[in-house]
Design goal:
Largest sheet: 5 strands, mixed
Strand content: 25-35%
Helix content: 40-55%
Structural class: alpha+beta
Distance between the termini: 33 Å
Shape: globular
Radius of gyration: 16 Å
């Protein structure tokens, strides 16, 4: 799902860059094209993709959001494992939630960390933010289409799960576990 407000905001930020810094605007437009191309390609894929392809898509998304939020949005990539497959558009919606509902809901902004590592036959992917968080008792009410789609993709894959942990005024962590037997 591409959210129209994200498209409008990204295009508005690029338009503003056209006035201020045409070279940066050209670069941002290239990033926007990369993002859209990744989304369109992902919609057509019903199978898994290399994590590196999903990471490229996430990076493009975060670069566009940094155009809008500047220093209020900090991003940390702690990528220790890259050789695994994942359903397309599985991690990106979680990163988008961390930006939209976590970090950017705080007046002072915050940090999003994407971490991957391997534990024997499992790959663990965490998306963590130090945003506003939420009460875990309200999770069912808060779980919207994006989270449901991620759960369905991981279930369809047959060997992945998603767990959410959150604490008000502390932040949220989404953990994807993929059972990745290399046989």
């Amino acid at each position: 799902q591409i959210q129209p407000p994200f498209l409008y905001n990204a295009l508005g930020a690029i338009r503003e860059l056209c006035r201020q810094d045409p070279e940066d605007a050209r670069s941002a437009l290239g990033t926007f094209i990369t993002y859209l191309r990744g989304n369109m390609e992902s919609i057509q894929k019903e199978h898994t993709i290399p994590f590196s392809k999903e990471l490229d898509h996430i990076s493009a998304y975060l670069q566009l959001e940094k155009l809008r939020f500047g220093e209020d949005l900090q991003v940390v990539f702690d990528i220790q494992e890259t050789s695994f497959l994942i359903p397309s558009l599985t991690i990106q919606p979680l990163v988008e939630n961390a930006v939209k509902h976590g970090v950017c809901s705080r007046e002072e902004g915050g940090t999003i960390t994407l971490h991957t590592h391997r534990e024997e036959d499992r790959v663990i992917v965490t998306i963590q933010d130090d945003g506003v968080g939420f009460d875990m008792d309200s999770l069912e009410k808060l779980e919207h289409v994006g989270i449901q789609n991620v759960r369905k993709r991981l279930s369809y894959m047959g060997n992945g799960t998603l767990q959410l942990e959150s604490k008000k005024n502390v932040g949220t962590t989404a953990t994807i576990t993929i059972h990745d037997r290399r046989d």
